[in-house]
Every structure is written in structure tokens, then in C-alpha cells.
Amino acid sequence: MRRLIIDVGGTNLRICYQANLAEGITHIHYFRCSDFPEITICLKEYCDAYELQIDLLVIAAAAPISGPKVSITNNGWSFDARDVAKLINAKAYLLINDFAAQALACQELLDPKYKVRRDRHLCLRSGQSDCSKPLLICGPGTGLGVSALVPSEAGPMLVEGEGGHVTYTPRNKVEEKVLVALATQFPHVSADRVISGPGLERIHHILNGENKFAHEILAAALADQAASQQTVFLMLESFATVLANAALSFGSGAGIVVAGGIVPRMTKLLPQSDFFNRFDNHGRLSDFLRVLPIYLSVDPCAGLRGGAIAPENQNLTKKIVRI
């Protein structure tokens, strides 16, 4: 079955092709969403350039999934998956959340005999993994994604969450200052208002009165500029709180995978921050958290790889829509 897989986020669109199950993904291209007024233009250009014939379209979208209509949470794109599939003459489509695809790309971590591949995951902290328990996948990009894999006899069951939209919870006075400031802008201050690329920019403005892009803040932090480091540390420590809360909610005994586009660029700053102490420091269940292994996803094609194997997941096969 010839497949086109697209991973669409708030900032980037990634596309690849898979000729059949025996082959890997090919024709990998990255696009910036802001370069196109709508997804169909970019997709049509891609398919026409390679003269591709498509049986199944797999869409992993940074949006709540309910029915064929999609509104990407952190950009202006809206589309109907059925219409997009028809545009490229696909015979069927499968629509999943983008972090569901990220999760599927990590399913090998549920195998107790698996040896971690450094081109896919780095071990931020070793621990005691119980592969009979859920694996949590979470991380910031343009927004904050959350999903989980739950082991079962039929293969990993996927939990497609929207945990990035939980209420932001400060744990010190500086974070309270950030929350108070954001509450004047948003009726509900969700975690992804803080723990994301745009969140990094908001934090920096609130703490320093400066308007800087996220990449500028990160570059300055890596160059040991104190104000930017304070911004990055606050985001990382706030992220640790969200991770711990999600790990406790899911009972993520298999461990945690940090995904998304931001944290891999901050790896050098993690030990300087209070990230690990914040994660572990959760009262009566701290002992549970302290032994969890934490991995970092470093494969830029993880969403595409996860999307490519999604149709074989027994819990997703029934969601394939024939046209």
C-alpha cells in the first residue's frame, strides 16, 4: 500500500512517502507552515513534483482529533482530512494527533530487550523501567504535546491526550509573577502558554521587559547571559512539573520520553537548571518519580516514522476511513 505521511505542527510541515511496508520512508521534505496559506497548496506541489500515486494518506496533526475537520492549534490552518485525501487521489486516510505519531515512534522502548539507539533517543537519566506499565511522551514545540503508550497483548494502545492545555501551576514566586501577567492576556493560562517556543518569548518579556524571539533567547542562554538563562530555566522547571504530573496521572512506570523541537536545543542547560530536582520533588510519590528513566527524542523524523507504522497498530486500523 503506497502511503503519504504528513506531520503537521504549528511551525513545520514534514512530508514523506512509503512505497510499501517492506521499505522505509523516502522523499522526506520539511516546509515552514507560514510559507503557505493552506496545507493543500504545499501538499499538491509535493505530490506533483514526484508524480506520486497514493493509496493511504496518514495525517499526524497538532490538534484535537474528532472527525475529519482539523484546526491546527498554533497556526491558522484549518482543513478537512477527507478533502485533502481526495485532492491527492488517495483511496483512504488516517487522522491522528501529532504526539500520537511521536509516541508510536517510541514503542520499541516498551521492549525490555531493546537497546537504545543514539540516533533516536538519548538517555537523560537512567532508571528502573517497568515495561508492563505505560510510557509517557511529552514535550514543547510551538505548543506542548502529551501522549502515552499502554502495553497490551494486542500491541501498544495509544492515548491521544491534550495535556498541554492543563492549567499552568506555579511552584515559586517568580512563576506566580508569570502566571499573574499571563492571566491579564488569557482567560485560561494553560501549560503550553509557558512551556513552548512562544511561551519562552512570553516569559522573557515578563521577566526582562524585552521582546526577543525564542531562538535568540536560547542562543543568549547558551552564551551564559544571565537574563536569558533565567527565562530558559523557568521554562524547563515548569516543564518538569507538567512531566511529573502527567507521569503520576498515567502511572508511567516504563519511563518518559521528552519530545518536541525545543528541549534538544537546551540539553546543555538541563544540568544547570533545577529540572531533575523539580521533577522528583512531588511529596509522597517522589520515590516513584525518582526511579523513572527519562529519554530525549533526537530523531527529527520521529513523527513521520510513527505515522508510517500507525496503520498497523490494531487500535488505529479501525480509524482508517475509506473514500
Overview of the structural elements:
The chain has helices at 39-50, 81-87, 98-104, 173-183, 197-208, 214-222, 226-250, 275-280, 286-290, 302-309, and strands at 3-8, 12-18, 26-32, 56-61, 69-71, 78-80, 92-97, 121-125, 135-140, 144-150, 157-160, 255-258, 294-297, 321-322. The protein has two domains: 3-98 and 302-322, 2-Layer Sandwich (Nucleotidyltransferase, domain 5); 106-297, Hexokinase, domain 1. Helix content is 32%, strand content 22%. Helix 3 (98-104) crosses helix 10 (302-309), helix 4 (173-183) packs across helix 5 and helix 5 crosses helix 7. The protein has a six-stranded mixed β-sheet, with helices on both faces. It has a six-stranded mixed β-sheet with strand order 8-13-12-9-10-11, with helices on both faces. It has a two-stranded antiparallel sheet with strand order 5-6. With 323 residues, it is of the alpha/beta class. The protein has ten helices and 14 strands.
